[in-house]
User: Fold this.
Amino acid sequence: MIFSEKLAILRKNKGITQEALAQKLNVSRQAVAKWESGQVYPDISNLIQISNLMNVTVDYLVRDGECMMAPVASTDTDLEHLIDFRLEANVNTYAAFMNEAPSTRLDSHDFRYENGDYTYHDTYVGGEQFAGQEAIWKKGKALYAMNYMGRVLAKEFSGNFLKAALRAANYKMPYRGPEYFEDGEYIYKYSVNGDFTWFQGYEEIYWKDIKVYECYFHGGLTRVAS
Assistant:
């Protein structure tokens, strides 16, 4: 996804017209229209203002999809297998209503999936406001972990839609869901900085331009000090 597409989506999700955005940025409506049509590009001061207004990073705005979403160099076969397994576990646990496991902590919700040498475990506490961690082991050795914390912001939130979005994750965006997912009146989107070895991100869901859910997450590969 390129800048012009991102700007249009972010603006619409905020419920802001081109005229209103132009007024906030102290530019003309024609300038915003040209940005969204890809005819011209805003200068750095406008990019910073846009990032603040839309609650995204400048890095997210300016980097195109292919550059931003490449999780790792393709030469690392072990890392490729790890990502493949993470995506496989993703569609066989919470996001697919499958493989719920006994609680490992007081009042926790747990999911576990195994295939060959790999084991995946996801555990979280809470409900409408929640926190959790997912981790992956290979032959009993921890390789990867991600922590997340999120909350429901409105009664229109749909857990089924969130799960559908998470199931749509792909190799280029293997952290949570895809960069953008839409179904009916719901829109899911997220931004991430870093790659699969070390990253942080933010995901949100909108219903009719109303933000109904948000979640912050960060993670990467684990490593024991030598």
The radius of gyration is 19 Å.
